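Model the whole thing, not chain by chain.
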Amino acid sequence: SAVISQKPSRDICQRGTSLTIQCQVDSQVTMMFWYRQQPGQSLTLIATANQGSEATYESGFVIDKFPISRPNLTFSTLTVSNMSPEDSSIYLCSVERTPNTDTQYFGPGTRLTVL
Amino acid sequence: DQQVKQNSPSLSVQEGRISILNCDYTNSMFDYFLWYKKYPAEGPTFLISISSIKDKNEDGRFTVFLNKSAKHLSLHIVPSQPGDSAVYFCAASASRGAQKLVFGQGTRLTINP
């Protein structure tokens, strides 16, 4: 499995502000994924980030709200913009250690609370 | 539209007994299934997976069964241990390399001593 770290582990933010979440992997990976887990809900894919190209967003998620960067093969950021209380969730990044296996390994998550 | 469903939000099992967690899906295009375990304040940990060409996959105490005609899979844990207490998620993908996992809502398993 991959060693994945996320920063920050948790944060409390004010409505209308933005937060950037970092995801670092211990080895080079082609695809990185960002998920959201709202309270009491399942994990929902926000977008897929491929190094050197624009992220691919799932239905219901837009780049203006969740801009993603993927500057190299071991790092990605997700920004939650213009936050509202509805954005309070756990945000998780994941990677496929072996490409095209669909077995994803997850980071520890970032617990975001928006007041 | 919940394509992957775990209808039991919680399950309580005595230590040493078998734990059976269930998962149903509606999308007939799903052909790869995974189970993850999640402890509080941690990310999900991959447990075991199964391809649609199989009906059973075993790894130590964990066995996953797939019934394609019923669109149902289950995870068996034998024997159950206190460290197995966690939330378990099933996930599915449609075609290998699709890179999108669809998750169920999770089942909280509690192992009682």
